[in-house]
Structure formats: C-alpha cells, structure tokens
Amino acid sequence: MSAHARFTEAFAKRPVVLAPMEDVTDDVYRRLCRRLGATICVTEFVNVDMLLRGCQRARRKVELAPDDALTGIQIYGSNPERLAEAAQVAEAAQPLFVDINCGCWIPKIAARGAGAGWLRNPAAMVEMAAMVVRMVRLPVTIKTRIGWGPESDMPILDLARRLEDVGVAALTIHCRTAKQGHSGAADWSWAARAQAAVKIPVLVNGDIRSAQDAQRALIETDCAGVMVGRRAIEYPWIFRESRALLDHGQQLAAPTAEERLELCREHLRANVAERGEPLGVQVTRRHFAGYLGDIPDAEALRYALNRCSSLQGCLDILEQRRLAA
C-alpha cells in the first residue's frame, strides 16, 4: 500500500488522534494511548534546527519503532528551507505523515515566527507549506489555529483552501486564536466551516474532554476526526471510550480503581525501561493526578508517589494501596 493510500485509509475511520505535546507524547506514551484506542498518534514537537544539527534528543523524537505505526512526526521552525530539509529527515523514519506546527502559541516559539507565528503572514505560510510538500513523498499536514488575533481578522477559511491547493493532505484546527492560548471556549464552528470549504480531512481540536465531546464535535462540524490534547495527559481512557461510542454507540464505564492503579504501574515500568531511574519515575509523575482521579485516598497516594524516586518503591506503594482496598 502506498503512503498516501495508507494515510487515506487511516483518516477515513473518523480517527481520534493523540495530539503532539512536548515532553508527553514520546514513544512510551504513544504506545500506551494506542493500546487504549488512539487511532493515530503524533510525536512531540521537533525543532528543525536541532534536528538538522544532529541533536541527539531531536533525533530520538523522529525514531519510530516497528510497532509505532500510524504515527505522524511534527516539526516546527520559522525558516521554510529548514522546514523542508527537516521534513526529508523525518520522512526517512517512514511516519504516516509529516505535520508542520503552525499553532503553538507559546511566546518563545511564536515570537520567533515558528508555530502560530506563521499566522501573522498567511501568504508566507502557504508558500512554506508548498515548499515542504514538494520536498517529500509522504503526506504533509498542518496543525494550526483559527487566527492570530481578534475574530475580525480570522484567515482560517481562505487559508484552508490555499493550503489544500498547494497539496497539504489534511488540517488540524485548534479552534482558538493564538492570542487566546488555552483561555476561553474553543469555537468548533470554525472547523465546520473549514471542512465545508475543502475536500481534504479536517480534524477538530480544542475542548475534546470526553467521548461525548468527541461525538458532538463530529456531529456539529462534519469533520473527519478529532484530536485530543491536554485531556489525554490525565485521562487516556478517553480514546477507548470515544471509539466505543463512535463505532458501536456504547457508553463505557469509567475505569475502576484497579485499572487506574494498573496504568500507573504500566507507565512507570515502561518509562523506567526507556529512561532508567530516577528519570523514568520522575517523568511519570505528571500523570498521577489524572490517573488516580478521585479514588479513595488518591491525594495521599499521589503525595507518596511524588516523593518516591525508585520504581520498586512506587510499585510497593501502589501494591499497599491495592491490598488495603
């Protein structure tokens, strides 16, 4: 199957996609979310300058294991030529697609013209996308926001058409402006209008916090799929719940206390196998609050886990909690 046929097949399944998130969507977490039902995953952001300089950390981000299928590699930068060159490096890893970050609003990135900084000059963004498309054989996608600033200056509809015209294979639209950051409610109507304006798939992103949100977003926008970001950090079960609702009309029960504890154990073991101790334990801590949810004594359990730096110590804490239940 060709790369574009594989891409088309994946996007035809109303995908529930794991969003690219720095220091979160590494290979360990992608594997975990895929097991829980994520249709497509996207890597952490990859800085093109670091990648082209041969930075070990950037190179690791574009390495995909044989079981890391249906994964896109996201790159970001402000220089079109460097983005095109980095896309070729990413292509060598044989991802499902190469995604260009045109939506990150963090000032240290956007102020340099990368990420959502491209929205300040939509014409330059289209030219950049065209250059990247010409340089690789894989599908090229764009993740962006509805605009840079006020709603009176919202380029997304014209931009979507122009990006489609230069060969971009799909768009993910985070339905806030760059200046909004994560504040305010995401306005999914912009994704609906964009999808109506183009034939390529559009993924709706922003405020997808439950299976019901995923279903409602697809009904309201007629988009090809949804992308889940921050909610996945604390509640990766959103993928299996969304797939059950979208595919079978089933509303699954929330994970049990034992399932929550088991996910803590699984993620700890995988991170330590990947990174060793204590780093593997430390990078798992950001997930504990969400994983443990509101199970009895969750606060005390999180406190104990966050003070422990060894895998065995954390496993012992979790086992003691299980036996006490």
Write up what this structure looks like.
The chain is 49% helix and 13% strand. It has helices at residues 3-11, 27-35, 48-52, 56-61, 80-91, 107-110, 122-135, 156-165, 189-197, 211-221, 230-234, 238-248, 257-275, 279-282, 285-292, 298-306, 311-324, and strands at 16-18, 40-47, 71-76, 97-102, 140-145, 170-174, 202-205, 225-228. Helix 2 (27-35) links the parallel strand 1 (16-18) and strand 2. It starts with a helix and ends with a helix.
Task: List the keywords.
alpha/beta; 8 strands; 8-stranded parallel beta barrel; 325 residues
Q: How helical, in percent, are the residues?
A: 40-55%
Give the biggest sheet. 8 strands, parallel, barrel
Q: What's the overall geometry?
A: globular
H/E element sequence: HEHEHHEHEHHEHEHEHEHHHHHHH
What integer value in Å does the Rg equal? 20 Å
Secondary-structure blueprint of this entry?
Layout: H1 3-11, E1 16-18, H2 27-35, E2 40-47, H3 48-52, H4 56-61, E3 71-76, H5 80-91, E4 97-102, H6 107-110, H7 122-135, E5 140-145, H8 156-165, E6 170-174, H9 189-197, E7 202-205, H10 211-221, E8 225-228, H11 230-234, H12 238-248, H13 257-275, H14 279-282, H15 285-292, H16 298-306, H17 311-324
Parallel strand pairs: 1-2, 1-8, 2-3, 3-4, 4-5, 5-6, 6-7, 7-8
